[in-house]
Amino acid sequence: MNRILTAAGLCAALSLIPAMINGKSIPLKRNKYKIGNAVILTGFISTSVYLSKTDNSKKEYFNTAYNLRLEKSINITDDRDGLKQYKNISHIEIENPFEYGMQNLKGRKVTVKGFLNTFSEHRGYYRQYSTPVKMEVIKIDIKD
């Protein structure tokens, strides 16, 4: 018999890879992500309070942020300007939370698809961040 690998044979062999991965035959490093990439993460929606102020005011004021509290901490790489590592990130702030009704999702388990990014200071606006990482949401699925 001839042992030439046909296109159909190659496709069949490649189709086994996801099964081996899901069966945990091949170890995965699912806790590593990269800034700018689309990701799908599961966790609970929570809130945190942060202080901010503008140059025009000497007063600090409180704001509420909506976060995705992750079930397992992750590591994130930012290679846009050098190579910066964010390790053991346990929560990610949701960008534009009111577009998705986050105030109604507090405490609920969700799966969020979105793009990872970092905060940058706006001119004249200062903020104390609870996490350096934020997520621009594309889609939210409620789990419970």
Gyration radius (Cα, Å) is: 20 Å
What share of the residues lie within helices? Answer: 10-25%
| SSE pattern, N- to C-terminal | HEEEEEEE
Mean pLDDT, nearest integer? Answer: 78
Strand order, sheet with most strands: 2-3-4-7-5
Helix/strand class = mainly beta
CATH architecture tag: Beta Barrel
Instruction: Write down the domain tally.
Output: 1
The fraction of residues in strands falls at over 45%
Largest beta sheet, briefly? 5 strands, mixed, barrel
What's this entry about, in short?
This protein has one helix at 7-22, and strands spanning 32-34, 38-54, 61-78, 84-95, 109-118, 125-127, 133-142. It is mainly beta and 144 residues long. The protein has one domain: OB fold (Dihydrolipoamide Acetyltransferase, E2P), CATH 2.40.50.
Please provide a written account of the structure.
The chain has 144 residues and is mainly beta. The protein has one domain (28-142): OB fold (Dihydrolipoamide Acetyltransferase, E2P) (Beta Barrel), CATH 2.40.50. The protein is built from 1 helix and 7 strands, in the order H-E-E-E-E-E-E-E. The chain has a 5-stranded mixed β-barrel. Strand 2 (38-54) and strand 3 (61-78) form a beta hairpin. The chain is globular, with a radius of gyration of 20 Å. The model is unreliable at 7-28 (pLDDT under 50).
Helices and strands in order:
Blueprint: H1 7-22, E1 32-34, E2 38-54, E3 61-78, E4 84-95, E5 109-118, E6 125-127, E7 133-142
Can you tag this structure with a few keywords?
144 residues; mainly beta; 7 strands; OB fold (Dihydrolipoamide Acetyltransferase, E2P); single chain; 5-stranded mixed beta barrel
